[in-house]
Amino acid sequence: MSCATKLPEIVADVVTEKTLNDTDDPAIWVNPKDASKSIVFGTDKNTNGAIYAFDLDGKVLESKTIRNIKRPNNIDLEYGFKLNDSTKVDIIAFTERERKQIRLFSVPDMQPLDHGGFPVFKDATKPEENAPMGIALYKSPKNKAIYAIVGRKTGPLKGYLHQYLLTSDSLGVQAKFIRAFGDYSGKKEIEAIAVDNETGIVYYSDEGHCIRKYYAEPSKGDKEIYCFGKDYFTEDIEGIAIAKYTNNTFLIVSNQQAHTFNVFNAKTNAFIKEINLGTIETDGCDVTTAALGNKFPNGLFVSMNDDKNFFFHDLKKLELEK
């Protein structure tokens, strides 16, 4: 269970400038030309919402920030999306809940690729079953196809998640529905989704129930691999980040009401430890093990804090590998 006594705080290296409304979920873009100029994107969740862009000092990059988004919820990022035979771009995808769609932009030039948005959950018959919340991008190691896996405010007990194939042709970028999959306990909602591209595994938080584990590759079927972790959370299981090292992969998962994070072994699902990063009521988080210049030479962990900002920690401080 979550520790009864307060854990010592691992103090953040950087606290970002504040957003206008309500931060929720981050995504880290590692700049391939100069990692010290990498960007952290973060959602600001409200009707007058935005996708904020921050530099590694936590300063808002207004030229990279996308405004006038109707309640953006979660965000994810992928590298090398094929626009045509000669052009590949990095992309961010995020949910726009009030417009019942997902958005797709190129990075770092921040150009829309989605004709204004791709509607999701079009077969929904009940209120809020078509209100998207969580999103994760998956690049198949088999054929480099890129998919968006999307969760929603509420949904059926079977097939809660929808998976869309992102493609580009002479008509532009398209999002094609591929499948509905994933069990749901019915207790709260499913928001946090993360995918390990190398293993082809998708993890998602069935809040108040467990971390669920499925195959991200549609050809491998819809059967659940595992449901784990419930006993280590005070209440809601929230944001999931996947830290990949040469010999180990860790899941870092927000224990929201305890204001801490639980760390699991991604392969065995075993609980490793609980850590306190100083954030309150964390929804989303993201991580990279890549060195980001002198500022974060050991990688970066980013977590949402319930004060309209995000915390940046040098990954070494989390002591995942000892």
Automatic annotation (TrEMBL):
Gene3D superfamilies the record matches: TolB, C-terminal domain
Domain BPP: 1-322
Pfam families to which the protein is assigned, alphabetical: Phytase
InterPro entries: 6-blade_b-propeller_TolB-like (IPR011042), B-propeller_Phytase (IPR003431)
Protein name as annotated: BPP domain-containing protein
Record organism: Postechiella marina
